């Protein structure tokens, strides 16, 4: 599910808030933009779960987390 802004719905899990991006099958560089926008909209302590199937995407998301200084 997504919100009107196209970002994933916020799901409460205990005291943390989790969002999920399903990027399976996405080959667009916009997947990193979507992840960065989602991270920017989240509160501190939240968890972003990204679902992907290909190794290059995993490397790109890891690099994004490193550049933004987010724990991996």
Outline the secondary-structure elements.
Layout: E1 11-13, E2 16-22, H1 30-41, E3 47-51, H2 55-67
Parallel strand pairs: 2-3
Antiparallel strand pairs: 1-2
Features:
single chain; 72 residues; alpha+beta; three-stranded mixed sheet; 2 helices; globular
Compact summary:
This protein has 72 residues and is of the alpha+beta class. The protein has helices at residues 30-41, 55-67, and strands at residues 11-13, 16-22, 47-51.
What does this structure look like?
By secondary structure, the chain is of the alpha+beta class. It has a domain at 31-48 and 58-72. 35% of the residues lie in helices and 21% in strands. The protein has 2 helices and 3 strands; from the N terminus they run ββαβα. It has a 3-stranded mixed sheet, covered by helices on one side. A hairpin with a 2-residue loop joins strand 1 (11-13) and strand 2 (16-22). The chain is globular and about 30 Å long. The protein starts with 10 loop residues before the first strand and ends in a 5-residue tail after the last helix.
């Amino acid at each position: 599910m997504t919100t009107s802004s196209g970002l994933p719905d916020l799901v409460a899990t205990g005291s943390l808030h989790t969002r999920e991006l399903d990027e399976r099958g996405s080959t667009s560089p916009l997947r990193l933009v979507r992840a960065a926008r989602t991270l920017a909209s989240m509160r501190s302590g939240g968890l972003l779960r990204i679902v992907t199937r290909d190794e290059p995407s995993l490397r790109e998301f890891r690099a994004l987390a490193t550049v933004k200084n987010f724990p991996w």
